[in-house]
ECF RNA polymerase sigma factor SigE
Amino acid sequence: MSISGREPQPTTRPSLLVRLKDTRDHEAWTDFHAVYEPVIYAMCRRRGLQDADAREIVQEVLMAVSRSIANFTNHGDGTFRGWLSRITRNATIDALRKSASRRETIDASGVMRHLEIIAADNVNDETTEEFDWDRRQQLFRWAAAEVRQRTGETNWIAFWKSSVDGLSISDVAKELGIGEGAVYVARCRIIKRIRELVDDRLTE
C-alpha cells in the first residue's frame, strides 16, 4: 500500500542473511545486490583498481557469497559485513598481484608497494569500518529509492524539499499547492519508513 495511505501493520520477517541462504528467495538476492554491489565496487576503486577490474571483482565476490552463504555462521566477531569486507579485500589483493605480474618491473614495483599497504590493513578494524560506512551510505540511498517507488510524487517532493533541501513547511505547501498538514504528514511517514528499512538491514 502507498505510504501516503493507511499505514500497514508491522510484520516480523527473517533477516536478509537468513533469507539469502534460500537461493530461491529472489527478492532477498535483489536487495542484497542493490545494497552491496556499490559498496564492494567503491572499496575496490578506492584501492586503485580500474573500473573494469573493479566490476570483475564485484562479480567474483557476489559469486563467492552465493557459493558460501549457506555455510556462513554469524558468531563472535564474524559479522556478515566483516566477512564480505575480507572477501573483497582478498580479491582486491589477488587482482593487484596479477596486475603486477603482467607489468614491467619498473611499474610492478609501484603496484607491489601499494599491495603491501593494502595487505597491512587491520581487517577487523579499519577495513571493516570503511566497508560498514559505505554500506550505511548505500543503505540510505537504497531505502530512499524503495520508499519513493511506494509513495506519490507530490508526497516525495514534500519530504525532500522540507527534509533535505531545508525549506520551511509553509513554503513547500505553497509551492505544491497543498496544506501544511499534508506536508508534515508526508515528511514524517517517509522518514519513518526510510528509517525502518535502514534499521532492518543494519541489524543483520
